[in-house]
Amino acid sequence: MKENNAATPAKKAPRKSTPRKKPVIAKVLSEVAEPSFHRDTDTLIYALGGLGEIGKNMYCFEHQDEIIIVDAGVRFPEENLLGVDYVIPDYSYLIKNQAKVKALIITHGHEDHIGGIPFFLQSIRLDKIYAPRFACSLIQKKLEERRMSRQVKLVQINEDSRITTNHFQVGFFNTIHSIPDSLGILINTPNGRIVETGDFKFDLTPIGTNSDYQKMAYIGQIGVSLLMSDSTNSEVSGFSISEKKVAKSLLEITRKTPGRLIVSTFASNVNRVGQILEAAVACGRKVAVFGRSMENVVQIARKLGIIAIPEKYFITPDQLNSLPANKICIVCTGSQGEPLAALSRIANGTHRWIKIIPGDTVVFSSNPIPGNAVSVSQVVNQLTRVGANVLVNSPLTSLHTTGHGSQEEQKLMLQLIKPKYFMPVHGEYKMLRIHAESAIETGVPRENTFICANGDVLVLRDGEVFQAETRIQTDDIYVDGNDISGLSTAVLRDRKILADNGLVAVIVTIDSRTNKILCRPNIVSRGFVFIKESQTLLKEAEMIVYEALKKKMMQKTTFGELKNCIRSSLEPYLYKKTNRNPIVIPVILNQKAAMLQMQQKREAAAAAHKDEDSAIKRTRKPRSTPVKTKKTKPEEGEASSQFHSNTKINNAES
Length: 654
Known about the structure:
This protein is an alpha/beta fold. α6 runs parallel beside α7 and α14 (535-552) runs antiparallel to α15.
C-alpha cells in the first residue's frame, strides 16, 4: 500500500514479536508499521480527546485526503497538575496532516467542546469553523480576546445546514442540552453513515428548542453504521427531571424569599440563567449580574434574543444599596466553590459590592462536579456562618437538573438511531463500559460495541466496523497561560517536589585561583523542615557538604562538578534523616579577585584572538580598485614606479 509521507509522524517502528498473536504494545501510526486498513478506500474514526475522561472532546473522521474534526475542547486540570490552566489534546498528527483538514464542526458552546479552539488555531491553519448560533458568539468573543478573530471565518449552522466535501456529506439535527443551539451530527461517508450525538438529553417539556425526534427516527430508518453517543450520565438510572420543574422551584423560592436573593449557577447554563431572571422579574425584583463569564453569557444571550429581559430590570452594582432587600436578585458565578469566583468572595467578605446581610437567601442551582464537593461545602458553611440561609439542590428542592441524558434517555437514543455498531464517547472508562452494556440491552451485539481510548482507530469499510491495531499519538498537552508548547513532565515533577518536599539551597564560597573553599557552606531551606527545630540537622548537612567539597577540590575541577558533588553528598543524607527528597539548589560564589582575574583572562584571550584575526587580514593581498590609465607599455625598469605614481594620482582625483 502506498502511504502519504506527510501523514506519517517521525516515529521509530516498534519491535515486532514473532510469532505475533496479540499486539503487546500498540503501534504508533507510521510508515513502517503495516496498518490493518487501506488508506485509499477505508474511513478512519479516532478521538484525540474525550475518551476515558470528562472534557477535551475532539473526534476525527478521515477518508483519503480529507479529515473532518468534530469539537475542539479543553479539560480542566486536576489538583495534582500544579500551575496548569488547561489540558488540551496533542495536535501532532493533525499538524502533520493539516493539508487534509477540511472542516472543524462544533456541536455546542461549552468549554469542553470549544475551549481548545484558540490553541488549535495556533497550530493549524484553518479557513472556516462551522458552529451553531450561540456557540458562534462565544467563539467570536474568545477569539477577539486573543486578537485572533481575523484568523478564521465563523460559519453559522443549524439543523437544516449541509456541509459537503469530496468524500463527506454532513447534516445536523436538534438536541436538548443545558446550552441553547445544541446539535447532533450525521456524517455520510463512502463506507457508511456515522452519527455523533454531541451532548444531549431528552426533555418532554423543554425550555427552548425541542429534540428533533422525527429526524432521528428517519436517520435510524435509513440505516446507521456507527453511533457515537454521550456517556456522561450512564451511571444514573431512569430519566432526568425536566427544566420546567426546576423553573417552578426557582419561581416558588423567589416568591417566598423575604429578603435579598442571591442565586449561583453555571454561567454556561443559559436556559437556567434565563429562568432565574424571569422568576426575579415576575416577583418584582431588579437583577444584578456578577462574574465575568456570567456577564458575557447574559450579554450574548440578550443580544441573540435567548434571554428576553428588558434593560430596565437590570441594575448596576452601585444601585444595590438604593433598593429594598426584597426587591433585589443577584445572579453570580461560583457554584463550584471556585476561590476567585464572585460567590466565594461574597462568603469571605472580600467582594467589592456585596456583603452578606443576616436574612439573605443564597441558592445553589447546581450540583458539585466530582472533585469540587469539598470546596462547595466550605463556601456553604462560610455563608451560613455569616448569617445567610443557604439552599442546595436535593430531591425535595429540585433546584438543578443535568444537561446529559441518564440511562433510559441513552437507551431511547439507541432505539431511535438503531446503529449496527456502537462506540460510547464523552466519559470516563466506567461510564463508557456501562453505556456499552445499555447498548447491548437494546439489541446491539456485544462484538459490535467498541470501548476505545484516545488514539484508538476504528475502520469503517463497506458498512462494517473493526478496530485497527494502529494507534494515533495522543498525549496530553499542559497549557500554562497561552503557551501551547506544553509544560514538560520535568517542570511538573519539580512543582510536585516543591509542594511535597520543599527546597534546600546550599551557598558555597570558593577561590578558583587557589582551588579552595573559603568557608563552611551555608544551607537555607524553604518548605522542608522547621529551621529553629532542625539546627542540628542543617549543621551536620553543612559539614557533610564541606568535607565532600574539600576532597573534590584537591584536584582540578569545574563548577558543574562542584554542583553535582553538593547534590550527591547532601541528598542521601537528607533522605536518610527525614525520608524526604527536597530539591537541592547549589549556589557557588567565587571570590571577587578570582572573578576579576577570570574576567581579565577572558578579555586577554579575546584581544589575542582579535590581534590574530587582524594579522591574518594584513597578510592577505588587498583588492585594488581598477585604475583607468593609458594603455602604454612601460619600460621594464620603470614598471613598479609608474604603477605607484598612477595609483597616487587616481587616489588624489577620487
